Amino acid sequence: MEKFALEPLLDPRGRQERPQLKLAPRVNMEDLQKGRILFYNNTKLEFCNYTEIFPRIKKLFADRGIKNFIDFRETVRGKSTQDLINYAKKLAAAKPVAAVVALGDMGTSAATTVITIAFEELGIPSVYITAPPGAQIVEGVAFYRAGRLCLCPIDIYQASTKEEVMAQVDSQFDCILESLTLPPEKIDGRAKLDFKLDQVAPAENGLLPIMEKLAVAEEKLREPGSYMEEIMDYFNGEYLGDGLPIIPPTQSRYEKMLTYCPYAPEEVLAREIGPSGKNITVRDVAVAAVMAGCKPGYMPILVTAFKAMANPKYNFLQSVTTSHPGGNLVLVSGPLAQELGIHGGQGCLGPGFVANATIGRAVNLAIINVCRAVPGVCDLDCLASQAEFTYCFAEDPGLTPWTTINEECYDKDTTTVLVLKAEPPHDIIDFLSLNGGDLLDTITDSCTTLGSNNAYIPGNLILVVTPDHAKMLHRDGYDKNRIREHIHRYAYHQAPMVRNRGLVPVRPPGFDEMHPIPVTRSPRDIEIVVAGGRGGHSEVILPWALHSEAIVEPVLLPDGKIARSIKEFKR
């Protein structure tokens, strides 16, 4: 039977470089005894019994006559790749002969890998101490960004005893010493990384090799969705996607997706993000949009969302690999939301609405495919959540008695996109309150728990109020600012309840001395949206908040003017 050539598929990873790091020359024992060894603590050695790691390494060094140490401590959180490289240069000015870096255990692991790579490029032989669950993501970041790096894993966790921590350091001390002293012919073997993903880099032509392997009979081409099973098996096998069926990203579909996208395909929307360290371009987002099932008109919203996430205050670099189970919420306010059919009414945060589902999904697909933040492999999520499949809805101006987000930030004719790294929505049920005050107490009590990030890190939250609840609050004199003031004042935790539990707190100056401790920094941290259908279920969306802010970005044309209609974007 005659075979037909099939249209090639675009590689959703985009075009990626795979640099091969030249390791710094290693030193000998005499060098270590005479020179200074830099110990860099990314602040993860200051809780539980992880405090024993550096003292134990130093003791083992001292037993071998190595006693000259210099210590540096600073968080990597909230820093861009360039910030991290600059910090490494600052530490290198101390002229150490070698460096010991720790700890690669959780969300700071990826950024600390960048510092370790920078040390090697600056001529400082280094070893990076890792622990679960961060050890695997460190391997991934080092693989994509350097190709090799000296890593030393120790098997500890938050409840490890001092004795267990010291025993793990002892068992791996030879690894630490060899990482700094092995001769050139042996050090590459120590630094070699056999990572699970992407052993073959993306091709120069930007195409996947799958279509070379498929030849489909004319008879099968008559079947709707023919050879989709083969395509999905390939994509899933290569970790290209989210596990759900995708639309194959052909060149023709990609070009159609650019119909309402008058931006240059190679325009960079976010720089050096995730394990791959790759820039996210307009082309990458368009390919993800095809795979997600987006309509071409959604591209201006997606471009705006990525521009917002690229804001330094969003901390996009760390957000894509954090252990927090949040998604990247995309909340659209303004006339373009209605024009595109982004739903803000009944069921808007659930299934069934094409624009909501596919816009949110495209954001996640771009992160997985381009950044290579692959769940279960190169992403620290302990459990993850449905919010990482898709997380998008609109603010419907016809439902609210108050001003909308776009009006508060700009005007009613300007469409805005708000992004927030956040948990899935938490239900607030109240069918029985008869006045706004009682209802607001229910809402306020739902705005935090001891298991939520904002118990330890005050930040933004989004209150999504259903029309009935909004009507009751408005009737009883509660405008947005009064609601914000109430939540800021009464959503808090008693200081003893948040001490030595949860996670290391990151709070503004003065907050540690407060009693009780608020979960927001000011009333303005609280966004209020009216959405959904009639009834007594509102929701609150709680934040990741680790150096991460809600960002509101207007939807602009390439010339910087406000877009009044999606038609203005047509090529």
Describe this structure in words.
With 571 residues, the protein is an alpha/beta fold. The chain folds into three domains: 29-191, Rossmann fold (3-Layer(aba) Sandwich); 219-423 and 544-571, no CATH class; 425-543, no CATH class. The chain is 34% helix and 15% strand. The chain has 22 helices and 19 strands. It has a five-stranded parallel sheet with strand order 3-2-4-5-6. Strands 11-10-12-19 form a four-stranded mixed sheet. Helix 3 (81-92) packs across helix 4 (109-121). The chain is globular. The two termini are 42 Å apart. 50% of the residues are buried.
Feature tags:
571 residues, alpha/beta, Rossmann fold, 3 domains, four-stranded mixed sheet, 22 helices, 19 strands, globular
For the biggest sheet, the summary is:
5 strands, parallel
Number of β-strand runs = 19
* Structural class by sheet pairing and helices: alpha/beta
Radius of gyration: 26 Å
Query: What kind of assembly state do the chains in view correspond to?
Result: single chain
Shape: globular
Kindly give the count of domains.
3
- Provide the helix percentage: 25-40%
First CA to last CA: what distance? 42 Å
β-strand amount:
5-15%
Mean pLDDT: 95
Q: How many helical stretches?
A: 22
Strand order of the largest sheet: 3-2-4-5-6
Residue stretches low in confidence (pLDDT < 50, at least 5 long) are none
